[in-house]
Amino acid sequence: MRLRAQAPRLAVGLTRVSTAEQGQSGLGLEAQLASIRAFAAAQGWTLVAEYSDVASGKDDKRPGFQAALARCRQLDAVLVAARLDRITRRAHTLSQLLEDGISIRAADMPGADDLMLRIYAAMAQKERELISERTKSALAAAKARGKVLGGDRGYRPPAGPNATAAAQTRREGAQRAAHRLSLELERLRLLGVQGHAARARALNDQGVPTPRGTGAWTHTTVARILERMAQAAVAAGGS
């Protein structure tokens, strides 16, 4: 008896930017869409629909998001985004979608399963909360010193961009990338892939982007990610 060929998996793409300026430029959306298409093609999935939003990731009622979910339910398709936070910034929303049977995947975490997605979403939300708390504390301290905050008073400071703030932003971005990649490394460890070199080969074979997004994984890159996470754990324990 000849077996019927299994139909290819269907996928629905979702892109999102936060501001009208980003949406009008199209650059952020185009880059996300290119990543989604490449990821779906690599998985052998058929991308049947693409939806987009210009809104905050905290807004679960945005029209593109809701339309994408409806299409996924209709076709039993997987919801694909360039990054997990393009779908939602709320960990409980992601968990509820997975509980409801919506299959979700992020192009920048090709090997992540449902459990890893839940863990990463929770970690990312906690990190955003900590950043918000630090920002509020800094503003309160500045206000206590008598510094006038907020508003456009018709002038621009003669000094250029704040180098300290820019460096802090880069560090926080690197930390977020390290969190995400540490989940990939933990998954490989649980699968029995031991050693930095072996994990680097596995990440290259699976097409997982490096922290910089270019080049190939090496044992040194793996070691740096693990070292960064160890330092973060020590810092968290001492805070």
Automatic annotation (TrEMBL):
Q: Which UniProt keywords apply?
A: DNA recombination, DNA-binding
Q: Which SUPFAM superfamilies does the entry mention? A: Resolvase-like
Q: Where is the Resolvase/invertase-type recombinase catalytic domain?
A: 10-146
For this UniProt entry, the molecular function terms from Gene Ontology, in alphabetical order, are: DNA binding; DNA strand exchange activity
| Name assigned to this protein | Resolvase
* Organism, as annotated: Neoroseomonas lacus
Q: Which SMART domains match?
A: Resolvase
InterPro entries, sorted = Resolv_N, Resolvase-like_N_sf, SSR_resolvase
